[in-house]
Structures are given as C-alpha cells and as structure tokens.
Amino acid sequence: MDSFEDVATTKEEVAPEMRQDVGAETKLEEQDGPLIPAEALEEEKGLLQKLEQLGGGKVKRVIASLVLGSALVFGAGTFEASAAGKETKGAGVEQVEKEKSREQIAVGLLERLSSLPDNPRFTDPVQQYLMKKQAARTMIQFYALQRKLGFPEGNISGHVSPQDIKEALDELNAASGLFADKKFGNNDGKADPEEFNKMLQTIKDNPGLESFMEMIRQFSGVR
Amino acid sequence: METNFQKIQQLLSLSDLSAQERDDLLVLLSGATDDELEPLALLFAEDSSWIRKISQNYKAKQAAFTGGSKAAWMELLKQEEYLLQDMAKEK
Predict the structure, then answer these.
(1) Is residue A197 a contact partner of residue B62, using CB atoms and an 8 Å limit?
(2) pLDDT for A175-221, tens place per residue?
(3) With contact defined as beta carbons under 8 Å apart, do A140 and A212 qualify?
(4) In a 3-state reduction of DSSP, which class is residue A97?
(5) Residue B55 phi, psi dihedral angles, 5° rounding
(6) Does B63 touch chain A (CB under 8 A)?
(7) Three-class DSSP category at B69
C-alpha cells in the first residue's frame, strides 16, 4: 500500500479473522448529518484505542499521529467558536481600525495571547492550559494570514506558508519589547531590559506566551 | 537541541511530498506542541512511507471537516481501521 487513499480499496486484503468489530464500519450507514468536532474526535479516539491491541510501539505511534491530525484540523477549524476564538475575532476589523501601526497590532496580539480567557467547556486545569496553548498557535497562524493579506476587513481565508508564519513571528518578536513595556513596565513607549526580563519570567506559567516562544524556536530554521 | 518540529521538517525535505504538500503539513503541525509531535517524528524516522500516508490522512480530514459531513468522517475512520488492521496483518 503506497498511500492512505489506497486504504479504502484494500479492505478485501484483510483476512476476516483479523477484522475486529470496532464500530466504524457498522456505524457508517446509520450516521449522517452535520459533523460535530467534539463527537467526531471522541469517536476516533474510541475506535483507535480498541485497535491499539493490534500491535506494539509503531501502531501506538500511528494512532497518536492520526489523533493528532484530527485535533489539529478540528482545533484550527473550530477556533472561532471557542472562547479564545472570541479574542481573535476581536482582533479583526474593529480592533485593526483602532490600531494605527503594524507594531501596535502586533502588541495587541501579544496582549491577547498573554491573557487568554478560560474556555468554559473545560474544567480540567491541564486541559485548559493545553487548549490555550493550541488557541495561541491558531491565533498566530491567523495573524500570519491577516498580515499576508494586508489586514483586510471582513472574513478572510487563504493559505499561509511556513515562511509567512516565520515573518509574522519575527514581527511579533520585534514588538515584544513594547509589549513588555506596556504589560510589565511603565508604559512609556520604551522597552528596557528589566521590563523584558519580567515578561520572560512569566512565560513558563503563561500558555499563550509559551506557545509564542515555542513557535519562534520551531520556525527559527525556516528560511 | 533539535526540536521534533525541526526533525519532521528535515524528514519532510527528504520525502517525495511536493513543496506545497510539505508546507501544508508543516503549517498544520505548527499548531502542536513539541511533545505532541514526538510520536510523529519517531514514526517518520522509522518508516518514511508514513509521511505520505499521514499527509493524505490529514488532507482527507481537512476535506471532511470543510465538507462538514459525518458520513465522510465515518468513511475516514473506516479507512483508518483497515490501515491498522493491515499493519497487524503484515507483522
């Protein structure tokens, strides 16, 4: 089998005794309608957990990779519906109109990243923290798209490359001194080392800023 | 120290994915923490044929999500089931 798309055509290759009734096949005909991300993710996790017994470490890595893909696809796609998504929407037309310069827009995003609201759907603090990290990443990707398109009004869609994200991160990084001055300093419009250090000290407990720093590291090799 | 994201980036550069496919996958993966990327980095390193399979799986998920059809999603789950059962058969 050369590709995932081939999988659908290879079902007859699998011996009946190796098949396990784990549900996806039997549910297919009876389930149509709108795709609800949270339910879809649970269905996939349930199915794959039952299949974990089929193999060892490699199967587990495949399963973890498949689940990760779903979480990322649904996470990005449903972002606007999340509590953190409201923050991104706020960063759109109305706020952009108020903020005069690109640097101020970048500072605005850093402020929102640093104070992401709790998502009422989650009560577990660890999950809450991870969701904020994920939300922050999506907000930065969205910022990269806004930036690429020149911060247009209205709904936007489009493709961003790793280079676009790298450039957006560079811009945010350049604005971090001003953000530190505003958030942790005397807001005199000048970034000083003490204010910057205060910001750095908060990163380990701040999911939004932690994600921002992780992405800077991740994209440091992108040219 | 090299991050999992950077390891994946390197492995993708050696793969037969097109530049666009590599970019799309990397952008999607940028939404994951480095810990979350570890199984994927290990999988790609141990068997590069999974790079294309995962790329296609993620694209199919994006299409299912965009289309919003539960039936399409269930079809995808069925394919994942076959894929894993094929792996068991090959053992």
Answers:
(1) no
(2) 999 999 999 999 998 888 999 899 999 998 999 999 999 889 888 87
(3) yes
(4) helix
(5) -60, -45
(6) no
(7) strand
Query: Is A15 close to B89, i.e. CB distance below 8 A?
Result: yes
Short-list A59, A49, A60, CA closest to A20: A49
Verify whether the Cβ–Cβ distance B39 to A68 is below 8 Å: yes
Confirm if B17 and B51 have CB atoms less than 8 A apart.
yes
How far are the Cα atoms of A118, B3, B11, B13 from residue A124, in angstroms, in the given order? 11, 28, 35, 38
Asked whether A101 and A167 are in contact (CB, 8 A), the reply is no
ipTM: 0.95
Check: CB of residue A183 under 8 Å from CB of residue A199: yes
Q: Is A34 helix (H, G, I), strand (E, B) or coil?
A: strand
User: Rounded to the nearest 5°, which phi and psi values hold at A34?
Assistant: -70, 145
Contacts of B82 in chain A (CB under 8 A): 7-8, 10-11, 14
- A48/B contact by beta carbon, under 8 A: yes
